[in-house]
Write the structure tokens for this entry.
Amino acid sequence: MLDLHKSRRSRRLSFPISLLLTLTLILSACSNAAPAAEGTSGNAANTPGTSEAPASAESSTPEAPATKTVKTMNGDIEIPVLPKRIVAEEYIGSLIPLGTIPVGAPGLTLQNMYFQEALQDVTDTGTYGKMNAEKIFALDPDLIITGNNDSYPTLSKIAPTIVVPYGELKNAHEELTYFGQLLGKEKEAADWLTEYDERIAAAKAKVDKAIPAEATFSIMENADKTTYVYGDNFGRGGQPIYQALGRKPPAEVADEIMEKQWAELSAEVISKYAGDYIILTSNTRTVESFKSDPLWGSLPAVKNDRLYVWKEERSWYYDPLAVLSQTEELADWLTKSK
């Protein structure tokens, strides 16, 4: 304690100093006995073990963790709880509905017509499947998302890298749910999927009313004198037709198509794989050109005006945003003439 008797100050100051000390002690006591914050116990100052100097509100509240550990095909990986600078090679159509815009993405992805406008300020990170490591490094990402595990050794040296292989997430629900959990945006994912389900249900109801349930559908592509057929998870319209609208391929080839997801067809077997309706990708041909072709023109779907031809820039993508738009587009076509 301060020994006032040994102080060099005059006795005239003894009273003011004593008063100052008294006031200080009173104010300190009042501070310790201050009412608790709203919603907390008013007896916090009497809690056993509480130190003489009360802890500040900031120090008494546990800080939220800055990182978390997620299980991936490459083992447990520590990532930011709330990543701010994401480079995404894949799955951008699931990030945008969550309100997450990456800082970098490959050029092919930036050309996706279904969300091109949302990515106008996103940096091009190079070739899809072989992104430029130097460009990515310059963006200082805190998380990288890709579907290409071959790139993992390089990308993981730049930032925590999550690899989700192509086809592992089967539909919009799996994608949005996964990335909602990964990025801590479960509510945003649930809200978007609610609207998605409502719009898909409306499109399906419209098609079901116009098209018989037993009608078969084929998803095909014609390019460079080669024809391919696809399943329900390989783009070109498979997701909207087989998943969203619940339609089926010809029974004879259904198991093969859904298991392998794609097959190259010779001219001799095209008719075997052709359903009552054909959704066909072609960058160079039109419905009229297929009608005038001896082979294609002989197919019932073509003869009966049940052929839909669209270009790769619209059919290739299979992300949730694309699937929703494609489903409504195809539903409009299927019901327009009905």
Q: What stands out?
A: The longest helix spans residues 186-210. The mean pLDDT is 85. The radius of gyration is 32 Å. DSSP finds 15 helices and 14 strands in the chain.
